[in-house]
Amino acid sequence: MKKDKYPYILNETTARFDFESTGPNGTIKKTVDYYKIGTWIDGSQVYNLAFGDWDEKNNVINDLSRTDNNDRDKILATVASTVIDMVSVMNEIAIYAEGSTPARTRLYQMAININKEEIEGILNIYGYIDEKRQLFESGKNYEAFLVTRKKD
Amino acid sequence: MNQERTMKHFWLQEKKIKFEQKEEIMSTKISKFLEKREKPVVGKSSIPEDAVRNSPFIIKKIGQAKRRLKEHPFPIELLKAK
Known about the structure:
The complex is a heterodimer of chains A (152) and B (82). Chain A has 152 residues and is of the alpha+beta class. In chain A, 23% of the residues lie in helices and 40% in strands. Strand 1 of chain A pairs parallel with strand 1 (41-42) of chain B, so a sheet runs across the interface.
């Protein structure tokens, strides 16, 4: 089943996706930023995923604010959708994601679990736990995640 | 003898074509799925790029990711299998 998600603007030159969360707390601008952090020996380009709120007052992005608009699942589906868009543009890509706090990392885990049906056919998902990387399994509390596109 | 060799060659060619066709079907499965997806709107965002790049949170996250991947590189066996 397709999940409800927000429409987003892709800034192609910077690999950034922006969208607006709407709800009881008003409109909150959010951004999913992909920044290249390296290249693997097989040629895959490794990107870091950072997701946060646009703080207009301080002119910065942060992910520590709690702006609850009762739309968590919709936001997570939107973030997951940007991951799929990134891999659809680039074949050889790896995306690294880690929250700034354990709670935020759990949020990423939730995003994977909620959208597993849509993403597992396309993506390999690895979790980092106890200093090891392994294929993602639901129910484990990972410290970070890495996603690659499945081989065709 | 020559005829036998030609037959074998023909059979191998046939097999190769079938394999390539099968491979093509497999290789387009994910690509086709991705092509069918709704494309995001491409445009200029109202969030300035400088503000994103200079955000302490973003700088911290990039540094953290680089460090993590250096300290715990992605295992080569998983890389081969991906």
